[in-house]
Amino acid sequence: MEFWGYRRPDGSVGVRNHVAIIPSVYCANHVVGQIAAQVAGTVAILHQVGCSQVGADFELSAITLGNIGRNSNIAAVLVVGLGCEKFRALELADRIAKSGKPVEVIGIQEIGGTPRAIERGVCIAQRLAQEVSKQQRDKVDASALIVGLKCGGTDATSGIAANPAVGVATDKLIACGGTAIFCELTELFGTEELLARRACDERVAEQVRTAITDMERNVSILTRDEAYASRRELLAAGNIEGGVSTIVEKALGGVCKAGTNQIQGVLDYAAIPPGKGLYLMKTKGHDAESVTGLIAGGAQIVLFTTGRGSPAGSAISPVIKITGNPRTFQHMAANMDINAGTIVEGKESLESVGARIFDEVIAVASGKKTKAELLGHTELFSVPRVGAYGMVV
Amino acid sequence: MHKEGKALVLVLNSRDNVATALQDLSRGTVLRVGGNMGRTVTVSEKIPFGHKIALCDIAAGSPILKYGEVIGYASQEIQAGSLVHVHNVKCTRGHQQVASDDGRKES
């Protein structure tokens, strides 16, 4: 199975050809946004980190932003720093430059303020965007694909239609030699044993159990105080209105999207998988943080199931929206790519929808735009913080 | 997975004691479930699309089974044919007892 992709110097293959403008610190966000607004072919990667960080929290931001810049969908990068920040623009640039792609750096304080920084940035971005636009797509094996798996806005159809159908597509991708990463530890309470049984060895099995139970412990610590008794519910209102009764029911439905393959390893947040196959990444259930982690891990495409109807997208990697709720597909047709609701209506088999999802992955990889891309949705970018005792908060 | 009763509900695993409604179910609807659809369950109250219906009587404290796994426990007695949801299901995952910093156990 092949697709048309952009070969990168480090051997990875992109499905998009962006020039990314990335601030090393959030104080540069406005300048970054203004540069990206003036140059076609660029995307602004705005965030809230880079200032006043230490230890594990600082390290996680540095790794995440560095790996984001390394994602194969990004052909070239302009880093915009302020000058005084903890996370130096040069460090971010060095991390990204390891991929072999062109990286340039400017600093707002060095250049002398906003208008001058925007002008310099626009000139650089224009040059980069024209240079990368010369690259053509090549025919590439599907084993180059890393697909991120996510659900958001879960309802009862997620676990009986959309996620199992994605699971079929995940199995097909891995059979082609590709890689899939599922995540969201807060959405896996109750599945730790069945997932541990699918680990490729006992070491990974123990990592799976520990990852899920550690997250459950963190959640329990956050909610144990009586002052937060009204904030203990783990399910969202939409989950409950949609028929999901417990976090375990939600988890058993969610885990279906990982298909049936063995789990090759458990990845730290934003880490790049060391090999092919199925991996679990340690993220929380937060949609933007999870997708950011998946893209930092190299995901060129994200399969995102939604029962209630999430419109969110990513500036970096195309997000394919799949719903198992026929009413949602019809009602929010402008945001939904795949209708898995045909399963619920008894009109189509899981296997057939799974095959359609896999075909869509190949089509999107080769250039087809998703509904979220076409409408300009870029919400799914957020770098998680690390709090006391190493707890990712 | 197999669908029962003219695709009115979905029973995911033969161990399950709940089924998921594939459309809004009204009181009095008779569902045929079980191997060769030999058993019937009568819907005793409105079950909205996507929500769960009890396939048999479930005693208070007994497990609720879906996907062949325990998703929670009945917080009160549940009669066959009635809605199974947050009002009569309890799950304590995510609210575990944790040892505090000085080693004492706290809820």
- What is the percent of helical residues of chain B? under 10%
Radius of gyration of chain B from CA coordinates: 16 Å
Rg of Cα set of chain A: 21 Å
Q: How many helix segments of chain A?
A: 15
SSE-based structural type of chain A? alpha/beta
What low-confidence regions of chain A span 5 or more consecutive residues with pLDDT below 50?
A: none
Helix content of chain A: 40-55%
- Span between termini of chain A: 40 Å
Number-wise, the strands of chain A total: 14
Show unreliable segments of chain B.
1-5, 100-107
How many β-strand stretches of chain B? 12
Chains forming the largest contact:
A-B, 36 and 33 residues
Report the sheet with the most strands of chain A, covering strand number, pairing sense and barrel closure: 7 strands, parallel
Tell the overall outline of chain A. globular
Calculate the terminal CA-CA distance of chain B, rounded to whole Å.
38 Å
User: So what's the overall shape of chain B?
Assistant: globular
The average pLDDT of chain B is 86
The largest sheet of chain B has its strands arranged as: 1-2-3-6-9
Order of helices and strands of chain B: EEEEEEEEEEEE
Average residue-wise pLDDT of chain A: 96
Structural commentary:
By secondary structure, chain A is of the alpha/beta class. In chain A, 40% of the residues lie in helices and 17% in strands. Chain A has helices spanning 29-38, 55-70, 89-97, 108-111, 114-132, 156-175, 192-196, 202-223, 237-241, 247-254, 287-296, 326-331, 341-344, 350-365, 371-375, and strands spanning 2-7, 13-14, 18-23, 42-44, 74-81, 103-107, 138-141, 146-151, 179-182, 263-267, 277-281, 301-305, 319-323, 338-339. Chain A has a 7-stranded parallel sheet with strand order 10-11-9-8-12-13-14, sandwiched between helices. A 4-stranded parallel sheet of chain A has the order 4-3-5-6, sandwiched between helices. In chain A, α12 links the parallel β13 and β14 (338-339). The longest helix of chain A has 22 residues, at 202-223. Chain A is globular, with a radius of gyration of 21 Å. Chain B has 107 residues and is mainly beta. In chain B, 0% of the residues lie in helices and 36% in strands. Chain B contains no helices and 12 strands. Chain B has strands at 2-4, 9-11, 18-21, 30-33, 39-42, 52-54, 63-66, 69-74, 83-84, 89-90, 98-99, 105-106. A 5-stranded antiparallel sheet of chain B has the order 1-2-3-6-9, with no helix packed on it. A 3-stranded antiparallel sheet of chain B has the order 7-8-10, with no helix packed on it. In chain B, strands 4-5 form a two-stranded antiparallel sheet. In chain B, β2 (9-11) and β3 (18-21) form a beta hairpin. The radius of gyration of chain B is 16 Å and the shape is globular. Chain B starts with a strand and ends with a strand. Chains A and B meet through α6, α8 and α10 of A and β8 of B.
